[in-house]
């Protein structure tokens, strides 16, 4: 049994840029590693969440699998944080919200330039797409929000440090960016 | 009439005909606002500058300063109201800052930063709005329009042209363009017009000028809008 803070992370409809930014903490990760450990995360390849202290969600919600994952995180994480523009407002993937889903699929898989063997993917194992990409606070209760595209490593450090020390996270002016 | 008023216990002089927000700006006191701009006739629509005057709520940009007025501009409840108003503006339109040329220099974003806005709180509308890229030099992205009416006033009062108007009500409210086709290219706007430059967001942009200022050197990168507002909002008085 360890007393380390357990953190789970995932990327839903995101680009993993926020995860890369997490790694941008560089040598500061060494100190952090003494205090935290990862549960379900692309960093560990653990497939399902066990009870955790902090859940970091990158990306918005674009399909049925995203909803299942998000609910699993909410169920298991004491504190859930929306990380980055996509988790907060849908971000770049939400630009498809202005095009009918059918037209998106036709453009990507049938009519687009350079499409080989045109057909809409319909394997039953593929998660169904939602009609619109949604920010995560429209699906589950979110405790904190880390804005940025991506949030800088300093933002991750400020949030994690505060939570580990039992404080409410807050950001100084220079760390608040939406881009 | 001239005299002094107090804003949050600070005594501020005013001169004849000044509104509260004008008196505040002259004294270097920032009251958050988006539809107000020095030198333009007041519009009073964004409600961000709502203050308590002698115990009643008023728009600081439309309410005349008066001797002995007691104005409360900043307290926790009022900042919370301003935060919610700003969040409503964000979810009503489509404000994707990472892909907007105005990011870093946008007053809507600047106000949101100033209010420590970390999320949009409300469900998103994802309203279906058009883009008008017909003009060779000026782009209109209706997704970012907050209906502040500044381009309408600029075109009418400064440029003498009446290129813009706000049409419709509520969810159907939209910026319309005075031209036979409704397209900007067929209007008589020109790049030198005040209306082409006055937009506080990225709804009206000059083409071929995007991203010229690197991240880190943009208007609101280091200093909050409360500190830079007086310098960046140039007067357009005759």
Q: Which key features would you list for this structure?
A:
heterodimer; A: 179 residues; alpha/beta; Rossmann fold; five-stranded parallel beta sheet; two-stranded antiparallel ribbon; 31% helix; B: 238 residues; alpha+beta; Ubiquitin-like (UB roll); Alpha-Beta Plaits; five-stranded mixed beta sheet; three-stranded antiparallel beta sheet; globular
What does this 3D model show about the protein?
With 179 residues, chain A is an alpha/beta fold. Chain A has one domain (5-93, 130-175): NADH:ubiquinone oxidoreductase-like, 20kDa subunit (Rossmann fold), CATH 3.40.50.700. Chain A has helices at residues 17-23, 28-33, 64-76, 84-89, 101-111, 153-164, and strands at residues 5-11, 36-38, 52-58, 61-63, 77-83, 129-134, 144-146. Chain A has a five-stranded parallel beta sheet, with helices on both faces. In chain A, strands 4-6 form a two-stranded antiparallel ribbon. The model of chain A has no long low-confidence stretch (mean pLDDT 96). By secondary structure, chain B is an alpha+beta fold. Chain B has two domains: 3-78, Ubiquitin-like (UB roll); 103-232, Alpha-Beta Plaits, CATH 3.30.70.20. Helix content of chain B is 21%, strand content 16%. Chain B has five helices and ten strands. In chain B, the strands form three sheets. In chain B, strands 2-1-5-3-4 form a five-stranded mixed beta sheet, with helices on one face. Chain B has a three-stranded antiparallel beta sheet with strand order 6-7-10, with no helix packed on it. In chain B, a hairpin with a 2-residue loop joins β3 (50-53) and β4. The longest helix of chain B is centred in the middle third of the chain and has 17 residues, at 76-92. The model of chain B has no long low-confidence stretch (mean pLDDT 94). Chain A binds chain B through residues 82, 85, 88-92, 94-95, 97-98, 132, 134-135, 137-138, 142, 144-147, 149, 170-171, 173-174, 176-179, and chain B through 90, 94-100, 103-104, 109, 112-113, 116-121, 123-124, 126, 128, 215, 221-222, 224.
């Amino acid at each position: 049994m360890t007393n380390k803070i357990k953190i789970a992370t995932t990327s839903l409809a995101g680009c993993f840029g926020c995860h890369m930014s997490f790694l941008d903490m560089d040598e500061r990760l060494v100190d952090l590693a003494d205090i935290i450990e990862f549960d379900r995360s692309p960093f560990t390849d653990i497939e399902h969440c066990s009870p955790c202290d902090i859940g970091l969600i990158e990306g918005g919600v674009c399909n049925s699998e995203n909803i299942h994952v998000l609910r699993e995180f909410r169920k298991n994480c004491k504190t859930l944080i929306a990380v980055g523009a996509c988790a907060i407002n849908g971000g770049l993937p939400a630009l498809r919200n202005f095009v009918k889903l059918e037209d998106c699929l036709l453009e990507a898989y049938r009519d687009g330039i350079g499409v080989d063997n045109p057909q809409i993917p319909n394997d039953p194992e593929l998660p169904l797409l939602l009609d619109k990409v949604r920010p995560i606070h429209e699906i589950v209760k979110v405790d904190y929000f880390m804005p940025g595209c991506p949030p800088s490593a300093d933002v991750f450090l400020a949030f994690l440090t505060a939570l580990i020390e039992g404080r409410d996270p807050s950001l100084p002016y220079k760390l608040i960016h939406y881009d | 009439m001239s005299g002094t008023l107090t804003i949050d216990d600070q005594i501020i002089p005013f001169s004849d005909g000044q509104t509260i927000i004008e008196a505040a700006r002259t004294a270097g006191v920032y009251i958050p606002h988006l539809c107000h701009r020095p030198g333009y006739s007041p519009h009073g629509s964004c409600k961000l500058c709502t203050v308590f005057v002698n115990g009643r709520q008023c728009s600081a940009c439309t309410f005349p300063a008066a001797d002995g007025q007691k104005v409360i501009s900043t307290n926790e409840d009022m900042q919370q109201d301003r935060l919610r108003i700003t969040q409503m503006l964000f979810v009503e339109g489509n404000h994707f800052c990472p892909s907007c040329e105005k990011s870093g220099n946008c007053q809507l974003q600047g106000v949101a930063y100033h209010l420590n806005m970390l999320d949009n709180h409300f469900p998103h509308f994802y309203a279906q709005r058009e883009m008008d890229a017909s003009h060779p030099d000026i782009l209109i992205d209706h997704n970012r329009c907050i209906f502040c009416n500044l381009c309408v006033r600029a075109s009418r009062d400064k440029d003498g042209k009446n290129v813009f108007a706000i049409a419709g009500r509520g969810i159907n409210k939209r910026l319309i363009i005075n031209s036979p086709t409704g397209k900007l290219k067929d209007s008589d706007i020109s790049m030198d017009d005040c209306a082409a430059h006055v937009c506080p967001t990225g709804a009206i942009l000059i083409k071929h000028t995007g991203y010229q200022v690197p991240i880190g050197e943009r208007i609101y990168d280091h200093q909050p809008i409360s500190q830079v507002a007086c310098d960046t909002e140039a007067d357009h008085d005759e």
